[in-house]
Amino acid sequence: MDNGLNKAADAALASVIKIRDNRDKEFELVENRILSCSFDKETSTKIRNIIIPQKENIDKPAIAFGIFLGHTLGIQSDAATCTNKMNSDIRACMEHMKQQIQILNLVTYSFYAHVVQFN
User: Fold this and answer.
1) What pLDDT, in 10s, does the model give residues 9-22?
2) Please, which pLDDT band fits residue 32 given cuts at 50, 70 and 90?
3) How far, in Å, CA of 39 to CA of 20, rounded?
4) Cα–Cα distance measured from residue 37 to residue 2, given in angstroms and rounded to the nearest whole number
5) Which long-range contacts (CB under 8 A, 24 or more apart) does 16-24 make?
6) In angstroms, how far is CA 28 from the centroid of its own chain?
7) Beta carbons of 60 and 107 less than 8 angstroms apart
């Protein structure tokens, strides 16, 4: 936050690179053994097929990234001035992010950026 939106965006995109480069290491949301301990075999199989991805014949969903950037205006002023500065800062950061996404070869992914104001 203290280093500006562009630095925050750079840190977020560095995290995106780590996720992209390690996406083969998927997370397990449900421990397999709990299904067989809690339910009969038929019910366990049905639940497993619903919530645990199967490798055959399933297309992986497209990857999209949600990025949350903390922001402070660095000024104390009237609402109109603060709104104008906020809009200006966000526009400049989005241009910076577009350039970085191209440089980092992340153009095939969707990005959803959310700026959280801390003033």
Assistant:
1) 999 999 999 988 88
2) low
3) 36
4) 50
5) 16/65, 16/67, 16/104, 16/106, 16/109, 17/104, 17/106, 19/65, 20/63, 20/106, 20/109, 23/63
6) 18
7) no
pLDDT in tens, 43-99: 888 877 777 666 665 566 678 899 999 988 888 999 999 999 999 999 999 999 999
Q: CB under 8 Å to 51, separation ≥6 — which residues?
A: 29, 30
Token code pair at residue 15:
């995290």
3-state SS of the chain? CCCCHHHHHHHHHHHHHHHHHCCCCCCCCCCHHHHHHHCCHHHHHHHHHHHCCCCCCCCCCCCEEEEEEEECCCCCCCHHHHHHHHHHHHHHHHHHHHHHHHHCCCCCCEEEEEEEECC
Q: The whole model's pTM is what?
A: 0.67
